[in-house]
Design brief:
alpha+beta, Beta Polymerase, domain 2, Methane Monooxygenase Hydroxylase, Chain G, domain 1, 2 domains, 7 strands, 14% strand
């Protein structure tokens, strides 16, 4: 190997002890520090779609400028403004036009935020994460979703312009007989939350399939990397738990809210979302228990294999012990040793070395030691 191809930094990093145990995924999950404000990269592409509707009519538009959305502040109908891709100037312009508090703007532009709910005089703001399962990497990916409920207006901000789970909701809006067309903005806000929470179950179902595959590997005991797979899945369960538990508080905040923007007749719908997120949390706990049991089973299998190996080695050692003792006795440098000058001495000695281990093997078998 040529010296110019050597990379000392690739190997020297292992001299630092914590690096022997740290992984990139662990750092991604645990590296959340609210005292440090990370810089968000400006989106290269921003897509703004507007649904302005009432029971009788629907207007759907794709806007090319944030200023085009300003006219929907006083349209007199229910309006959903969805922004895919975040740019600071665009977010500030939209929120300023709709009289949204500056702290809400800061939360929208922040990253790695904990799901939360904030109320103001003229708006209700909630932030939570949309989850996706990456089959190629077997990882759960997050996308921050910010939803603002104002008078007759719902504004949603998404980080990724290429992934979305709201397409089925858009199809419902297009139907004149759907409840979305008959209800107000708070029902639209409920529908967005419901779509996000329902998609959690899709992610958990795919993660559950992966857990079943690893469980089969552990049961068969033929994969030496089973423990690594278990550890990876437990990290993904941490991601789920970190997202699900705060969402329960968010939905519970809608149930307890006394905001005039929320109609009492829609409380039962938010209660349904609350039941779903509680069910999701229980399912995560069940997955966690399965992973703990699976890890214990894997450790027990490893110990059982080790015990089998040690038992075989112990039996072999015991069977060879008589021959070792006899050979040692007759190998001593004394002047007179029995059978040393006898022509059949060698055969008698070898015969004894074979008979004694055979008797021992029979006794071990009778006692069920192997």
């Amino acid at each position: 190997m040529k010296l110019d191809k050597l990379r000392p930094d690739k190997y020297l990093k292992y001299l630092y002890l914590p690096n022997l145990f740290a992984t990139k995924r662990t750092k991604e999950i645990l590296s959340v520090n609210p005292t440090i404000i990370p810089q968000r990269e400006e989106a290269k592409e921003v897509v703004i779609r507007v649904f302005d509707y009432n029971p009788d009519s629907l207007e759907e538009k794709k806007l090319f400028s944030v200023t085009d959305s300003f006219c929907y502040k006083t349209s007199g109908r229910t309006t959903w403004i969805n922004v895919d891709g975040l740019r600071k100037a665009d977010v500030e312009a939209i929120c300023t036009n709709f009289d949204i508090h500056p702290l809400v703007i800061e939360d929208i532009l922040s990253i790695n935020q904990r799901p939360k709910l904030d109320e103001a005089e003229n708006s209700v703001f909630c932030l939570l994460n949309m989850l996706y399962y990456n089959h190629d990497k077997d990882l759960i990916e997050q996308e921050q979703i910010s939803i603002i409920l104002a008078k007759d207006v719902v504004i949603s901000f998404q980080e990724d312009a290429h992934r979305d789970v709201f397409n089925s909701l858009r199809e419902k809006i297009k139907s004149p007989i759907s409840k979305l067309r008959q209800r107000g903005a708070d029902y639209l806000c409920y529908s967005l939350l419901d779509m996000i929470v329902d998609h959690y179950f899709v992610v958990m179902e795919k993660l559950g399939e992966r857990i079943e595959e690893v469980e089969e590997e552990v049961a068969r005991g033929n994969n030496p990397r089973a423990l690594a797979h278990i550890t990876q899945l437990r990290k993904e369960l941490i991601v789920l738990k970190r997202n699900f538990s705060p969402v329960r508080e968010v939905v519970n905040g809608f149930l307890r809210s006394e905001s005039e923007l929320l109609e009492d007749r829609h409380t039962k719908y938010y209660k349904d979302v609350y039941d779903h997120i509680v069910q999701a949390i229980d399912l995560v706990e069940n997955y966690r228990d399965i992973m703990v049991s699976m890890q214990d089973l894997h450790v027990n299998n490893v110990n059982l294999k080790m015990n089998e190996v040690m038992k075989v080695m112990a039996i072999v050692t015991c069977l060879l012990a008589p021959a070792t003792v006899i050979g040692g006795i007759f190998g001593m440098n004394f002047q007179k040793i029995p059978f040393a000058g006898n022509g059949i001495g060698f055969f008698v000695t070898v015969g004894v070395m074979l008979i004694i281990p055979t008797i021992m093997l029979y006794i071990f078998k009778r006692r069920g030691w192997f």
